[in-house]
Structure formats: structure tokens, C-alpha cells
Sequence to fold (403 residues):
Amino acid sequence: MKGFKNLSQILTLSGVHKKDGRGPVAEDLNIIEDGAVIYNDHTILWVGQTKDIPTKYQNISLRDGHGHVLTPEIVDSHTHLVFGGNRSKEYSMRLNGADYEAIAKAGGGILSTMKQTNEASRDELFSIAKKRIERIHSYGIGTIEIKSGYGLNIQKEIECAEIINDLKIEFKNNVQIFNTFMPAHAIPTGFANGREYLEKIVYPSIDQVHKKNIIDAVDIFFEEGYFNKEDTEQFFKFCQDLNLPLKVHADEFNDNGGASLACEYKALSCDHLLRTGSKGIESLSKSNTVATILPGTGFFLGKDQADARKLIDKGAKLSIASDFNPGSCHCDNLVLISSLAAPTLKLSLAEIWCGITLNAAHSLGLREQGAILQGLKPRFSLFKVGQVDEITYNWGRNFSVPV
Ligand code: NIG
Ligand code: FE
Fold:
């Protein structure tokens, strides 16, 4: 057994947990001042004020948390961090007026990262990704979802899934990694349409990684110019037959009904949602599919943001993730992204913390974390600040310290 005492604050989120992450308000943060927590490797055993530590735990040597705030672990539930090269030139082109979708049509975009990823060796991709994870972990983020999707051929996609699995093993003692398989990220040249690419490349590679038992979910880019509604439904059915949890990139450039489709197929999450209108918002608010917004992408591409206010007010489970990738959001710091997003998207502190902890974990099917409550998993983030407000108030500063 181990634990902390004298923590300046514990952000328990017990109210957020009780509401299953819907409509959180300030009281749901349930902050304990001068807090203590006792846990073993698997479970939180007790949480309360230091003065109330039960006698049976009084002999345990506890770390002194004075001047620190303990929060539920921050989860980045959407990244594409296994990739070769970079697209800094494209970013500058966009600043000069070029458009993301037009760059992609001209052979840039995802396909340019595909080329650079295929040119990199397995060892190179592993070591670049390892450094990226170390940096993300240094911000206090302890669970990271990672998608494949820049191999775009059977061999390299499987290699990327294996790299993510190797990273999962490498970091097993301090970072929880979630492996999402996403060969359905773009359609390389040489394929007549999405369906042909799905049938020739995506399904055979899913069959193989599924047999290796290394993936935790699948994802598809449902968008004009990528995979259409028929492709997406066929993909969902194929993956559901294998019992693979679904995730989807939807409604980023257009409201294509992606949110409603995600709910219909009981996807874990539906991500982006920049253009999702009333119908999609209505569907999300009635379902357990987590609505994951990626404000960093809106900022990076200079686009209007998702209607987070309406999603929350209607009752959807809203989560916030980075979308860290080389093209549409080259920012890996979810704490910074959330801090920046709050005033623009009109999100309260309770909504932000719910979005980067509990709902983010739920969007990965991880239901035993996301709050500091007896019986849940001891997955925490720790910050050297006197009160929780300081973490998102100080844009771009990193107060995280190892738990
Ligand atoms: O989530 N939308 C699809 N995929 C990424 C972009 C990837 C890229 O531009 O390389 C995203 O925004
Ligand atoms: Fe993405």
C-alpha cells in the first residue's frame, strides 16, 4: 500500500463520475482540500482529508503532497503519433493561403506522410514515437491512444500496429497505451475508390492484426474525398463481426451524418465534429458514444470549432483530445490545447477536466478510471501547484511532476 497526505487539493471528480460525464458543473469537481489518498497497485482504497485517515492506514509511509494537486489521470484519446518526416512546408504553404484539402488533393497531406513513413525503418519509427510518448507523458498525460494510418499498405500498417504494441510493452509501467488500427485513413493512388482499397488492403490487414491480438479498436476517416457512407457502414459491419470496438473521424469538413452513424453502430467515440449539426448532436446526446472534439485541429487549420456548448447542453458525453499528427495538428500538449480552447468554446473548468479524464477514458472503453474514488484504478496526474485553477490558467506552462 502507498499514498499521499497533505495534498493541497485532490480533484476527485466524484460528481462527474456519478453523472457519467454528462453535464458536469463546478460542484461535480468535488475538490478535497488538504487531501489524502491510499491505494495499492490496482485499486484506490481510501480518499479523504488528511486529518481523517483511518487508523488502519496510519502506519503506511505516505508521500507529502504539500503544494501539489492530484487529479484523475489525463488521457489523450486521439493521436496519430507513429509517423515519419514532417509537413512543416505544408504548414507554411497554408499560412500563405493554401487550403488543407487542396494540398491533400495535390498529393500532399496524409499521402505525403505515407511516403515518409514508408521510407522510415521499423526501428526509426519506434524510436521517434518513443520520444513523442515521453514528451506527452511529461505533461502529466498517462494514457495515450495511438492510431496507425500512415503505412497505407498491408505490410507497413501491420508494422505500425506492431510498433504501437512494442511501445505498449515498453511503457507498461508508466503509460497506458491504446492501440487503434486505422489503415482506413486515406486512399492511396492506384485504387479506383474507397471500397476497392478497403477490400484489397484494409480488410486483409485487419484480419492479420486481429489474429495477432494486438489491436484495441479500429478507426475510419468518413469524409468527402476519403471514405463515404457505404464504405464506412461496410467497414463497421466487417469490424463488428470480429468484435472490434469502433471509432470514427467524422463531420470534419462537412456534416456527412457521421455522428448519427457512429451512434447507430455504437462506436466508442465519434471524433472531430467540426460541422456536426442538430441531428448529429441529438444522436450523440442520446447515446453512449463519446463526442470527442479536437480543438487543436480547428486552431491549426484555422477552422470554426465544434459546437461543444450545444453538445454538452444537450447531454452528450464530451471529451477533448489532441489529434496530434503531422498535418492537421502538430501540437502534442492536450493540457495547452484545452486551456486555449476553454474561452473560445465556452467550456468551464468542470467540463474541461471531465473531457480530458473521465470521458476521454470512456471513449477508449476504460470505465475503471477517470475519478479519484474508492474502488477505481489508481491512475493519477500530479501537479506542483496550490490549486487546480492554476493548471489551465497558465497557458503553456508545465506543472506536471511524476506520480
Ligand atoms: O485527424 N482527419 C484525418 N486524419 C488526421 C489528419 C492527418 C494528417 O493530415 O496527416 C486528423 O486530422
Ligand atoms: Fe485524427
